[in-house]
Amino acid sequence: MADHIKIREASGTWVVRAAGAVIGETKNALELSEGDYPPVIYIPRDDMAMAFLEKTETTSTCPYKGNATYYSIIAKSGEIANAAWSYEDPIAGMEQIQGHLAFFKDKAAVEEV
Q1: DUF427 domain spans which residues (predicted)?
Q2: I need a labelling partner for 65 at 20 to 30 A (CA). Which of 14, 30, 31, 92 fits?
């Protein structure tokens, strides 16, 4: 694992809200801290209503975590494009975040309740 990245279990219960609906809730979230960036909460896919998420063709690469794939939220009010990302096959040392989703703050709210 890169020395500037720390992954730990996020205590408490976390919810993901988008377009007025709760689309996920977990007690198994992870918090990833990377350098000076604000921490990011990663939610297990098993705790998400995946019927509301659709994989897109968007990808990106992080030299420390690997290739990210993106998901849009499909809501009654319309699509929220590329709202989440996931490292489906992360590089060595980042395996903890495999099977998890993280969300852009301006597209979904991830909150501890």
Answers
A1: 15-105
A2: 14
Domains and CATH numbers, the chain: 5-112 (2.170.150.40)
101 close to 3: Cβ distance less than 8 angstroms: no
Q: How many residues are present in the chain?
A: 113
Contact 32, 97 (CB under 8 A): yes
**Residue 47 burial (CB count, 10 A):** 18
108's tokens: 């979904």
Contact 11, 21 (CB under 8 A): no
The residue among 75, 108, 71, 74 whose CA lies nearest residue 88 is 71
- Residues 6+ away with beta carbon under 8 Å from 89: 66, 67, 98
> Which amino acid appears at position 22 of this protein?
V
